[in-house]
Structures are given as structure tokens and as C-alpha cells.
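Bit of a strange request maybe. I'm writing a small parser for C-alpha cell strings and I need a real example to test against, not something I typed by hand. Could someone generate the C-alpha cells for this chain?
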Amino acid sequence: MRTNIHIFALNFLHILPIPRTTDLCSTKKSTGAEVVTKRIICLANSEKGAGHCVAGIELLDDLSIGAWIRPIGSGHEGALTHREQAYQNGTSPQLLDILNVHLLEPRPQGCQTENWQVDPGFWWEKVGECAAADIDEYAENPEALFVNAGHTFKGVNDQIPEEIAALHPRSLHLIRLPALQVQVTAGFEGNPPEIRAQFIHGGTLYRLKITDPVVKNEFLPQGLGQYDLGACLACISLALPFQKNDGNLYRFKVVAGIMRL
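Reply from user aminoacidic:
Good idea to test on real output. This should exercise your parser:
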């Protein structure tokens, strides 16, 4: 998976348009704790209640690829407030931005081993951007998306009992899909329309909720229907546990970011 990492790194040297604004080797003080600055490629900035859920892959000092990182904030269930994920000009990171994020410490939560507590005392800094094609070869190819252990009413292979999810060491995947269909369906009992992504991965059908706000804002206004996007990279995430009416806890798989190829 990383045999061409040096070529990939050289591509980033070419496309980074903005000088570095932070010494990634240094630590700072904001809240009294040491701050770790990490550079990530943004692969999700999705909706999480009234806040944001950002996730990305670390870009190391030598421009090789590191681990997944999901900054968590002070909002409900660890959501990032707008301020906690904003650039100094007030805008939010977009998919495929390359940015510096300032973190305090790892905060794993079950299978969400990628979680880091954000330091709210610093603006995030965009230092570049890339195209989906630049990271295409770094898509993962798991046999299944975590584990296929159940469906919701409208979903397919979209939920996992918490006791099974807790056994998994991760909650994020970047996958390449030759075809993805966006489906907008009527909401339950007069609720707003719902939006899902349907695709096949590893020979298995999936239909998962979309939390990517850019995709939602593009297709929900178009009304009920099915919309073919073609080849995409998709960031798949396992959400926090949710207690259903049966009294059991489940984690739901969501499509947190969609990047068209």
C-alpha cells in the first residue's frame, strides 16, 4: 500500500501552495498541557449534531503517511464547535485540505481509537490542498467495512452491536468505489427527507447514511430520487454508540466524506 510513498511525497512538495506556518516539531502551551501539532489530509468534516466531526490521515514531517486522526471537541458527544475547527478567517476545512491541527492527548472511545482531544486555543492552519487522484492509491481495501452484523430499516449492513464493534481496533476507512449512488428518500412519518449512499464493496451491498454536508446540500434540494456519482473515494466512519428501542447499543456506519474521482 505504501510502495510509492516517495513519489506521493514529491507530488505534495509540488502542490503545497502555502508556506508552513507552524514548526511541527515544537510543542506549545495553551491550556496548561503540552500541545501536539499534527498535519493531516482532511477526509471528513461531517455533521455531528450542531457541530462538526473532522477526520483525516496524518502527513508526517518526511511527507509519508501516518495514522488516522479524529479531533474531538467540547460539543455534545465530542463534537467540534465551529471555533474549534475553524481557520483564522472563520472558514472550515474542506475535504482534501492539508492542515495543521493542535491537539492535547489521545482520547480513544471504544473502537474510535483515532480520537484526540483538540486544543481550543489555536486556530487551525491550512497549508495546502490536494486532489482525490493524489490519494487514490492509498485507499484501503478491507474485506468488509468493519463487520457486517445488521441493518436498520432503510439501511443495508449499516449497524453493528456495540459488543461486537468494541472488539475492533479502528473506526475509519478510506475506500475506493467504482460507483456510488446517492439516494434521497422520504422521511419517516413526515420527517425531513433522508440521504444515503448505496454501493458495493468486496462483493457486498451497503446502504449507509451520508453525513457529508457538501453532498447533502447538493442533493437534498433536488428532491427524492437516485443520483449516480461514478467513481469516488469515501471516508467510512463508525459513530458513537446509540441505544435503540430494543435497549441495546449499536454503532452506525456512515459515509462521512465523498471525494469524486
